[in-house]
Amino acid sequence: MLDTMTTWAQTGREVLRSADPAESNARLADLFSPHRLDPMMSRGNDFLAVARAARVGSIDLVYLKLGAEAVVDPEPLGTYYNINILLSGRASVVHGNDHINASPSCAPVLRPTSPVSMRWSADCTQLAVKIDRLRLEQLFAETFDKVWPTELPLNPVVDANQRRGRCWLRIIKTVVSDLNDGPDVSWNSQITAKYEDLILTGLLVAQLPEIGLTNPRLPAPGVVREAVEFMHTHADQAITTAVLAARTGVSVRSLQQGFNRYLGTTPMRYLQTVRLDRAHADLVQARGDVMTRVEDVAYRWGFAHAPRFAAMYRRRFGINPSQTLHGRYESV
User: What element of type H or E holds 10?
Assistant: First the structure.
């Protein structure tokens, strides 16, 4: 995973490069929130702040390095949650009552209202996952039919030694990998909505402790039918489970349970099948057109990673998408 993150750090959009601590402090405050940046200069570890960033819906992915040992004391984050994934070096975090030594398998989760103090080694590099507070708490309410009165009680670290934490870090790796390999996804609302939903929903699943959430009432079959019809009619638009739940007037969990009960799948897997069928139809229609590329058709229907699209296509249709495009039907 770290190789993938580091590669992206070299190719992401550079938003800061400065050897001036005051300038860096101001720019990082714009990216995150006001804070005190106190680099401890010594020979061999000259300060050079570098930041590269990408935006995925309401989420900012920011690669950071400072080049010198430093203390970073943010003001309360207020409007966002932040997860810092250590890529190299060392970082220690005091967050509320939690004292955390970060590692590649232990990512601190910074909450909006708790005080934070961090110390970075000179060779420390991190990927910050900055998540809009309003968007995450809205998704929590939509998913669990419950409004939490304060900041969400997320566990203080994403732990890769636990299955759920490992799955969430794998989601981040997948998104970063697609940012590395694929075309610019920022304008494709289908893809950015899918990535945003994966990251936010995955974080809630990974980091919420048991807080007395009960299973919702199973929806009527008509609700599932309405969601299915909406997906078929609007497959080219940005659709998430939360969008479908709002459209049908039930919670996310209720809709997921309805799909499992009546269709034996999840809403997003069903939508993936609809979009695969649309891509297949486009490839058949474009047969013989030398200007059409498989990856362009895949991207049109929300599949940013061509190899994964090809694998899903083979599972559904028994042949490669290129075989459909060129009229060759031998099974694979």
Answer: helix 2-11
Final residue of a structural domain among 115, 131, 147? 131
Choose the final residue of a domain: 87, 104, 131: 131
Helix (H, G, I), strand (E, B) or coil at 318: coil
In terms of residue numbers, what domain contains 296?
Answer: 271-326
Query: Side chain identity at 181, as an amino acid letter?
Result: D
Q: For the stretch 93-111, what's the b/e string if a residue is b when 16 or more beta carbons lie within 10 angstroms of its beta carbon?
A: bbbeebebebeebbbbbbb
Give the domain CATH number at 288.
Answer: 1.10.10.60
Q: Is residue 148 a contact partner of residue 140, using CB atoms and an 8 Å limit?
A: yes
E strand or H helix at 63, and its extent? Answer: strand 59-65
Q: Domain count for the chain, please give it.
A: 2
SS3 124: coil
Q: What is the pLDDT along the chain (332 residues), one digit of tens a residue?
A: 556 566 655 557 889 999 999 999 989 988 998 888 888 865 556 899 999 998 888 899 999 999 999 999 988 888 899 999 999 999 999 998 899 999 999 999 999 888 899 999 999 999 999 999 888 888 887 777 666 767 888 999 999 999 889 999 999 998 888 777 655 666 677 778 888 988 998 899 888 865 555 555 556 678 888 998 899 889 989 899 999 998 998 888 889 988 888 888 899 999 998 999 899 889 888 887 778 899 999 999 989 888 899 999 988 887 889 888 886 654 44
| Cα 310 to Cα 316: distance, rounded to the nearest angstrom | 10
- Residue 251 is assigned to a structural domain of this protein: no
